[in-house]
What we know:
By secondary structure, the chain is an alpha/beta fold. Helix content is 46%, strand content 17%. It contains 11 helices and 12 strands. Helix 1 packs across helix 7 and helix 2 (36-58) runs parallel beside helix 7 (175-204). The radius of gyration is 25 Å and the shape is elongated.
Amino acid sequence: MRTFHTSFFWIYVYLILVLTPxxxxxxxxxxxxxxxxxxxxxxxxxxxxxxxxxxxLLTARFRRASAPFGIDIVYYFHRYxxxxxxxxxxxxYLIIRISRAExxxxxxxxxxxxxxxxxxxxxxxxxxxxITSVWRKTLRIHYDGWRMLHIMLAISTFVLALIHxxxxxxxxxxxxxxxxxxxxxxxxxxxxxxLRMIKPWQMYKNPYRVVEVRQEHGNSWTLALxxxxxxxxxxxxxxxxxxxxxxxxxxxxxxxFSFSSSALNNHLLEFTIKDLGDFTHTIKxxxxxxxxxxxxxxxxxxxxxxxxxxxxxxxxxxxGTAPIVSMLRTLADRHEERPLWFFCCNNRQxxxxxxxxxxDLRENLxxxxxxxxxxxPDNWEGETGFISEKVLRKVLPGDAExxxxxxxxxxxxxxxxxxxxxxxxxPQSRVHFELFNMV
Length: 439
C-alpha cells in the first residue's frame, strides 16, 4: 500500500511540473484579441515545454522517484513522453502557421528576430533527437556516441526553446508571470547543472578498482571491483548500476549492468557481462588495477521487496541469469530455507554462464534447478526447446499462484513464460521483469 501511495505522489509531482507552465497563461490578465486557436496553440506549446523539462528529471535517476516504478519503466516512459512532447510542439507550430502565419515572421535567419530562429532551430534539433533515439540501431549509431549526441541535442533544444519563449514574451511580460516563468526555468537549469557537473563529481570522488576479470561460460566475463578509499556500495540482490570504465564520469560513457555478486559483500562487487559487441567486447581487455566508476544501485527487481513470500520462482535466458544468480547467492548467504525454482534457458549446455556454481547453489538451497536447452547434446536427458506452459505446469506445484516470479531474458522467452503463468492463474502482480534493453 505504501508503494501504491508513493507511486501516486510522484505522478502528482510529474503533473504539477508539466502543468506549471500553463499557469503562465492564467496568472493575471490574458492578452486581448488573441482568439481561441492562438491561445490553444500557446497552451500546448507551454505544455510541450513542460514535458521537455521533465525529461531531465526522468533521467536524473533519483532513487526515491524511480523506486515505485523501476528505473527501466521510467526510461521507457521517458522515451514515449518525448514523442508526445514533440507532437505538442509541432502542433503548436502548425496551428500558428495555419491560423496566423504572419506571426511567424521571416524564415530567413538574417531577417528574422533571433528568438524566432531559436524556436525553429529548437524544433529541428528536437526532431533530430527523436530520430536518432528511436532508430539508433537502424542508423548504426554507436551507443557511446549516441549518448553524447543525445545530451547535447537535449540541452540545446531546451535552452533554445527558453530563448524563444523569453524573446516572444507574449504571455510572460507581466511581473507575476515573469517571476513564475523565471523560477520554473531556473529549476530546470539547476537540475541540468546537477546532472552534468555535480553528480559526475560525486562519482569521481568515489572510484572503484578492478581486482579481477575472469572468463565464464557463454562468452561472458565477470568483472570484480572493490571500493578505492571509501566504504563501497550497498545494494539489493537483483539490482544494477551504471558502469564507467577507461573514461571520466563527465563523459557519460556508461552502461547499465546487473550485479551478479551476493549483496552481503559490498566490499567486492561483481558484474557478469556477455560479449555482445561494442563496449561489452572490451571487458576481457580490462586489467586489474584499472579505475571504474559506478552510479547505483537502481532497480526493483529483487526478492528483498517480498519478505513475506512463501517462495520464489526464477526464469532466465542467457546472460539474464546474472541478476538471478545475485539473488541466489544472497539467499544462500542468508541460509534461506524457503522453496525456490529456477528455469535456466540457454541454446547449448556450454552457454550456461554459471553452470558449476548453480549445481553448488542447489546443494545449499531448497532449490529445484531445471535447465532447458534449444540445442541439447546427444546424451541430454533434460528439457529441450523453449520454456512453455507445459514445462511450467510439470515442475511447479499446484499452488503456483502464491509464489513471486522473477523473469529476465529475451523478450520472446518472457512473453511465452508470462502467457503460461497467466493460464496457470498466477496474478500479474506476482510476475516481475527486468527489461533486457532500455536504450
